[in-house]
Design brief:
It holds the Pfam family PanZ. This is Acetyl-CoA sensor PanZ family protein. The structure is a single chain. The chain has 132 residues and is of the alpha/beta class. The protein has one domain: Gcn5-related N-acetyltransferase (GNAT) (Aminopeptidase, 3-Layer(aba) Sandwich). A hairpin with a 2-residue loop joins strand 2 and strand 3. The longest helix is centred in the first third of the chain and has 17 residues. It is globular.
């Protein structure tokens, strides 16, 4: 399954955002509804507003056939990239999407002279979470 991972500079102003935003919001809703995360806001807009507009967080999207199938929020602090959230849509669980996102983030962090920290992300939603 060839998955492309890239940073989105503004998830709301992208020209193709309607479908992307729906994919992102849907996977977030699935993560919140299908888990025991009671501290999470019920809507993605509320979740994203805590990072939107800040200088250091980056939103990474994983694509397959031009559809977002997973995403991550990374907060870049000094020489560390902190994984704040990682979410993979239900239909793609167990297909290595989360692992692919982590591979790309780890490589890009190393290329920037930083380390990716994955201690306690807000969301980690894939079939086998033992890889974190």
């Amino acid at each position: 399954m060839p998955v492309t991972v890239e940073v989105l500079t503004n998830i709301i102003d992208q020209g193709y955002i309607n479908q992307n935003y729906q994919d992102i919001a849907k996977s977030y809703q699935q993560a919140v509804v299908d888990s025991s995360m009671v501290d999470m806001p019920p809507e993605f807009e509320q979740f994203w507003s805590k990072w939107d507009g800040q200088a250091t967080p980056c939103f990474y999207a994983a694509y397959f056939n031009r559809r977002i199938i997973g995403w991550a929020i990374v907060n870049k602090v000094d020489k560390s990239w902190v994984l704040e959230a990682l979410c993979v849509g239900l239909p793609n669980h167990g297909r290595g999407v989360g692992e692919r996102i982590l591979q790309v983030l780890t490589k890009q962090a190393a290329e920037a002279g930083c380390q990716l920290l994955v201690d306690k992300p807000a969301i980690y939603f894939e079939k086998d979470s033992s890889k974190l």
